[in-house]
Amino acid sequence: MSDSATHAIAVDFLRMLSFVHEQVVLASEALLEGRIDHVAQVRALDRQVDALQDALEDRCLRVISEDPRADATFLMAVFRSLSDLERAGDYAVHVAEASRVLVVNPPMRRYTDLRRIISTIKTMLAMTARALTERDADTASIATALDLDIDEQHDQFYRELVTYLHEHPHAVNEGLALLRVGRSLQRIGDHVENVSERIANWLGPRGRQLGV
């Protein structure tokens, strides 16, 4: 029971990761390209992420309690990571919804720094999924370390935006929307970091092997 049940949980956890990744992609296109039609898709994916969280929490706990052969360390890493992925999906929704303000009143500044942050988040999510699929602790550790880059990029973005708002006080509404976007992206990075760190800890010291 343990191998098949754990494998199925791992597959659905990877699916949850892919949904969050898709949310980030669609939200970034809504933000950077004015694709407001993507907002509804981001929300729909968020409902799927929420449903997977509920289902996987129950399944993880059931397998741990019923099967002594199950890899409880891996299952607890997944269990604890579910809320992180759910929150990352919520923040992707926030980014998508902010695009409604910014497409009506586009800010008088470039999105260069936001593009860098979004690109790093996409890389983190892809590497986290690959680390689990390929059972690669090094890849998980690299993904974890990328959150430092996101923090640095966010700090630079924040400083530049505050400077811009001092010089252009009429753009306060757009500026506040961009501040919310920047903070949401930073929080996505924090939550993905938690997930990749748990995978690295599970794979590294224990050398676990999972047939994902």
From TrEMBL:
Stored InterPro entries: PhoU (IPR028366), PhoU-like_sf (IPR038078), PhoU_dom (IPR026022)
Pfam (any one): PhoU
Residue ranges of domain PhoU in the record: 14-98, 114-199
Biological process (GO), any one: intracellular phosphate ion homeostasis
Protein name: Phosphate transport system protein
Origin species: Deinococcus yavapaiensis KR-236
